[in-house]
Amino acid sequence: MRANYVTNLARNESSGGWSGFNVAIYESMGRHFDLHYTGPVVPPEDLVSKIRSKVRRSLGGKGVFPFFSAHRLQAFARMTDALVDHTAVLDCFHGSTPWIDYHPPVPYSCYLDVCFATYMSVYHDRDRFQRADLERIELQEASWLRSAARVFFSSQWALDAAVSSYGIERNTLRVAGLGGHVPVPAADEYAGGREFLFIALDFAGKGGDVCVDAFARVRERHPEATLRIVGERPPSRVSEAPGVIYEGYLRKSVPGELRRLQEIFAAAFALVHPTVRDATPQVIVEAQYHGCPAIAPRSFGIPEMVMDGVTGWLVDAPPTVDDVVDRMLNLLTNAEDYRAMRCAARAHALARFTWQQVGDRMAAELMSELA
Fold it and tell me: Using one digit for the tens of pLDDT, what is the confidence trace for 60-112?
């Protein structure tokens, strides 16, 4: 069955996060459909809207969202129409907002970690933007989602948030889940050690300061403990702190760097992820593949990924240093429970969070719709 896979990301761009989702979904859906990779669909920036928005802000006013200006959404639609295979019987979109001005002549679906309204609430200060401009995008997206044959979400939290924001019916909405974007090891290779792990491209947004401050207090009682940081370079006061090792930015698309990341996961005692800006963090699943439990907040889609006290620990949001310290010490001082948690974390991820399972769920729904 011929289908278009429409995305604004390149096929070889797979560093992690949303780009990792893109490649993984394309590959897993490719097991069921004859996919035409339509992308990357990336029209030029709307410089006029961007400049006007900056001028308004410089004068004390509110800006607009130029990435999804009316002009640029039209450009997305034109470019998509020019690139799709018009013999396909289905269009599958990676994300939704870039495509909301494109109206396919065939049934279509999309995969989301969050809708635009949720994205703005989590990652931006809505008060900095003109209300009418955000409503323009949100109303158009709500209409586009209503017309989709299926809308797949990475979590129930994201699905519920879209329903709450847009008032759309649930009958075409599904939770497809997510997976990790690293090879799954044959077994848990952890050999001991007390190496905590923090991975993020957004050090502040993922709670880097809370993680580092919590680690400093834990190390006062456990001087053998270390903290390895991967991703965005932390402030110098962090990278120079005792016990902290900054590994750098490791790209999954580079074989040597991917192998190093796998080695880090395998050696990790626990992932510390006290995030305040997130949706469904793929890094938790990737750590669980290796048997590494996570400490993360009871927010976003995370409670669907971490079974509190079984596969890791949840803390109240926003995470505090005290709460994170408490969970880190718990792992360090309860060896038997910790070993059981490693087994449970790996089993949980393999049973529920693989991209093959995601592709199978999506394909079954779409084939049923097209039958």
Answer: 999 999 999 999 999 999 999 999 999 999 999 999 999 999 999 999 999 99
Share of the chain above pLDDT 90, in %: 95
Provide, for the chain, the percentages of residues in helix, strand and coil under a 3-state DSSP scheme, each rounded to the nearest 5: 45, 15, 40
**Residue whose entry in the numeric block shows the structure tokens 């400049």:** 51
User: Cα(211)–Cα(271) distance, rounded to whole angstroms?
Assistant: 10
Closest C-alpha to 37, from 27, 47, 49: 27
- The SS3 assignment for 295 reads strand
371 has a pLDDT exceeding 90: no
Does 2-179+354-370 match 195-352 in CATH topology? yes
CATH topology of domain 2-179+354-370: Rossmann fold (3.40.50)
Average pLDDT in the 175-204 region?
96
pLDDT digits (tens, 9 = 90+) for 158-175: 999 999 999 999 999 999
- What order of strands is seen across the sheet that includes strand 270-272? 244-248, 226-231, 195-200, 270-272, 294-297, 312-315
Whole-angstrom CA distances from 204 to 79, 124, 188, 200, 270 are 36, 14, 30, 9, 19
Q: What is the pLDDT of residues 303-337, one digit of tens each?
A: 999 999 999 999 999 999 999 999 999 999 999 99
HSE-CB of 263 using CA atoms within 13 angstroms: 8
The topology under which CATH files domain 195-352 is Rossmann fold (3.40.50)
Query: Could you tell me if 186 and 262 are in contact, meaning their C-beta atoms sit under 8 angstroms apart?
Result: no
Taking the C-alpha atoms of residue 185 and residue 366, their distance in angstroms, rounded to an integer, is 31
Residue linked to tokens 């390149």:
10
Please, are residues 3 and 35 in contact by the beta-carbon 8 Å criterion? yes
